[in-house]
Amino acid sequence: MSHEPTCSAEILSLQVEGGQRSKHSLRIRRFQRWLEQHDIHAIDRFVLLDFAKAVGTRGVLSYLQESMLRVLPDHRHFEVELAAAVTDNRRRVDGKKMRSEILQAEWWHPFLPQSNIDRLHIHEVKRLDDWLHFLSDKEIRSPTSQDYMSFAAKWASESALIALQTAFNKLDIPKVPSIEEELNLAISSLRARRQGTGSKYRTSWPHELAVSRAALPDNWKNILDLIENGNTEGIPISSGFLPTVETALRTLCYCCDKLDLPFDIDRCTTLALVAELQSRKATNSTIEINVSALHRFAKVIPVSEAVLNDLSEIARDFHWKRKKDIPKKFEKLDKIGSASKILGRATDLLATSRTQRSLELRMAKLNAATALALFTLVPLRVADTNMLWGEQLTHTGVRYRLDLCTRKCGVEFHGEICDFVSPFLDALLLRGCDERFLSMKRNEALQNKLPLFAHSNGRHISRKCVANYWQRHIKCGPHIARSLVHTELGRMGRDGVEMALSLCAQRDPKTAKFYQGKAMHDALLLESNQVLISGFSEDLIAKHFPSMSNE
């Protein structure tokens, strides 16, 4: 904390309007005479306190303050020093410890040069003094969340830590991990301890239009258990396709139960399933997938060759119907607008995250922003989005790099990530801390193989978190990004992509500054990764993207 002294010559030269006998003139003249008598050359709060002590009254400095503000309206440094002296003098006269006395303690010395204590109320100074004293006694240099919780133990709540957090936010000090992360974690832990984490009576949404797994025939359940345990020898169903098969069987049995049919797979029950799905406005593609799932499972039970042929015929019928359909994703594309809109939304979330005091809210915004930005420009399926630092995601020393093998098709992706995404990944690592901690945070994540998307306490978020973020902020799943990059970005070409990315970055000043001059590199990178290609026929693009077909 710096005390800006004021040259006494400025004060001694003051002339007060209103006559020599006015109260303001008398107050200022008394102070001027005292300065001359004691040969004072620079005035700060300690000089003012000495003057007040010499006069010996409680209100001497507050009266001087009232008069000085009339003749020194723009002298900010002197006003600050005088205001601090007024508060301390009142506390001294009232027999309380002055702020200046509190700050004389040895544990304040390393803290004062990088802060502005005058921004704090005296109660906040005392709270901060208790904390620094605690650290000094325990010889703690980098406090953890457990240290904060030990400090707050005598209050049995998080209120003391919230007050401490408020004080830190007022001070001009670096955003270090011990404050931006550990303090927030301690507050969350104490709040959860006091309020409880809550009981979740339902862990998943029930299938209201399907029977439970327990209601399936025993031999069906046994086969499902074998697949679930990895015993798939001779069974044409992979563990990845198992949830689809189980859903189809449970829905089939629901239809059988409703129509008083036996729980069996044949032409009659399959057509009942088709009718039920059609009544639910299911697409031809969905019906085909369900019938195909029954067909695969029927091979295991087993059933007669005639039934298998019937199932194959029904699936083939909906396969050709599906071919004639315009994919629903184009309807969603019309509503979403463009990839630029998604990237703009991601940039807005990134900017909003910087104003969040709560680590939980900050991480929620950062996770969502990164999920939108990264998987718009690297359109992966949800199953491939659960990444770990140091495995799928690394850093070359210049930019981030992605190396993975997709689960569904086994396609390998190896390449650098667009610079547009770098501020998002950086912020995700920093979690609100100063950028000077980025290298440390990145190395820590890479070495410990931390999850890319994590809660504020570091715990891995659900495997469907990316889909949830897209649904929450874009109102659709991330699969739509593949259509966006192959159509919109593909038709925009290199120059168009450069311009679009640059405009998206401008929505946040910090991102814009980082991204300046890097848009062309990203356009070339997207092109080299074969993202800037058209994935749909000309007539479909003309129907749903007329502005692109006219370019």
In summary, what is this structure?
The chain has about 550 residues and is mainly alpha-helical. Helix content is about 60%, strand content about 5%.
What is the CATH architecture annotation of the largest domain? Answer: Orthogonal Bundle
Distance between the termini: 61 Å
Q: Please report the first level of CATH classification, the CATH class of the largest domain.
A: Mainly Alpha
Contiguous helical run count: 27
Class of secondary structure makeup: mainly alpha
Biggest β-sheet, characterized?
3 strands, antiparallel
As a whole number of angstroms, the C-alpha radius of gyration is 34 Å
How many separate domains make up the residues? 4
Which range best describes the helical content: under 10%, 10-25%, 25-40%, 40-55%, 55-70% or over 70%? 55-70%
Q: CATH topology of the largest domain, which one? A: hpI Integrase, Chain A
Mean pLDDT: 80
Strand line-up of the largest beta sheet:
3-4-5
Tell the overall outline: elongated
Q: Could you tell me the number of beta strands?
A: 5
Give me the secondary-structure topology.
Layout: E1 6-7, H1 8-12, H2 23-37, E2 42-43, H3 45-55, H4 60-71, H5 76-93, H6 99-102, H7 122-138, H8 145-151, H9 159-170, H10 177-180, H11 182-195, H12 218-228, H13 242-258, H14 267-279, H15 284-300, H16 305-324, H17 328-336, H18 339-353, H19 359-377, E3 393-395, E4 400-405, E5 412-416, H20 422-430, H21 438-448, H22 465-474, H23 480-505, H24 509-515, H25 519-528, H26 538-544, H27 546-549
Antiparallel strand pairs: 1-2, 3-4, 4-5
Helix pairs in contact: 2-4, 3-5, 4-5, 7-9, 8-11, 9-11, 13-14, 13-15, 14-15, 15-16, 18-19, 18-23, 19-20, 19-22, 23-25
